[in-house]
Amino acid sequence: MNDRLFPARPILAVSAAVFREGRALIIRRARAPLLGHFSLPGGGVEVGETFAVALARELMEEVGIEAEIVAFNRHVEAIFHEGNRIRTHFVIASFVARWTRGEPCLSDEVDRVEWVDPAGPMPSPATPELSDVLARAAQIVAEHA
Q1: Residues of 7-16 as b/e, b for ≥16 C-beta within 10 angstroms?
Q2: What's the predicted TM-score (pTM) here?
Q3: Within 13 Å and on the Cβ side, how many CA atoms surround 72?
Q4: pLDDT by residue (tens digit) across 91-116?
Q5: How many beta carbons lie within 10 A of that of residue 100, not counting itself?
Q6: 29, 62 Cβ separation under 8 angstroms
Q7: What letters, b where the CB count within 10 A reaches 16 and e where it falls short, cover 18-46?
Q8: CB 28 within 8 A of CB 62
Q9: Count of CB atoms within 10 A of residue 127's CB?
């Protein structure tokens, strides 16, 4: 049973807008709950992990890369309903990071990776707020250049 579907409480997660040569990495989810949706790489924080440790683990597990955190971007509350029930509820701490090593690869969680212009159109379907999160992340990375 997937404990992320119809959860008893919100699930804490991390994500990162990882930048490389002005482009941001996005991925397409290969598993529920957001199967087929483009989003930022990331995932659930495990008990005892800091955000930085969780993010490093998720980047390696999902796409096989390493990145250096530049700054916190914002939080995202991803709540999806199915009828009158809460299908998923994630509270995501979203960061801005710079790619440091590794070439993005596919995994059992990711079936597509793309480096995109953060100001350009996003592939569809995308997770809610992806464009807004990337636009703000691009501003932050430019301020830390």
Answers
A1: eeeebbbbbb
A2: 0.94
A3: 8
A4: 999 999 999 999 999 999 999 999 99
A5: 11
A6: no
A7: bbeeebbbbbbbbeebbeebbbbbbbbbe
A8: no
A9: 21
Closest CA to 144 of 94, 102, 97: 97
pLDDT tens per residue across span 25-60: 999 999 988 899 999 999 999 999 999 999 999 999
Contact 30, 110 (CB under 8 A): yes
Cα–Cα distance for residue pair 128/110, rounded to 1 Å: 18
**Residue 119: exposed, middle, or buried by beta-carbon count in 10 A (0-12, 13-18, 19+)?**
exposed
Query: Left, alpha or beta for 104 (phi > 0: left; psi -120 to 50: alpha)?
Result: beta
Which of 142, 139, 116, 125 has the alpha carbon at shortest distance from 38? 125
Signed CA dihedral, 6, 37, 120, 142: sign only: positive
The set of residues, in sequence order, having a beta carbon less than 8 Å from that of 83 and lying 6+ positions away, is none
